[in-house]
Amino acid sequence: MEDFSLHPRLAAGSHPLGRLDRCRVLLKDHARFPWILIVPEVPTEIEDLHQLDPAQYLEVMALVRSVSEWMVGYFQPTKLNFACIGNQVRQMHLHLVARREDDPAWPGTVWAYGEKQPYEPQAIEKIITAFRTRFSVA
């Protein structure tokens, strides 16, 4: 989508991993919880999965599956959580959060857990490199 613009709040709180299948893939800057955002490049009036046309829905869900498989292999979580919540940022975006039994919020939710702990620059680069190697994005 040529005129797509990433919501400023999503851009400010994340690191770009790449663009795949008409979606932006971002690493949320919250080191306590490995957290990926998938942002389909759709018009602003499309906020929920059921509003996507059938072909794009399948494309987005295939990407969710691929990224989920990568996250499970890379982060080795106990559980991978998935959500499409847009209460604060209405732009459609999907959350994939790798949870571990030893994470500080387990078994509760991560949404409002404590203060965010940003990634160290070396950790960001390591994750970006691993992601871009797996998905062949620049």
From TrEMBL:
Q: What is this protein called?
A: HIT domain-containing protein
Highest taxon in the source lineage = Bacteria
Q: Which InterPro entries match?
A: HIT-like, HIT-like_sf, HIT_Hint
- In this protein, which residues make up the domain named HIT? 36-106
The major lineage groups are:
Bacteria, Pseudomonadati, Verrucomicrobiota, Verrucomicrobiia, Verrucomicrobiales
Task: List the source organism.
Answer: Haloferula sargassicola
Q: Which Pfam families does UniProt cross-reference here? A: HIT (PF01230)
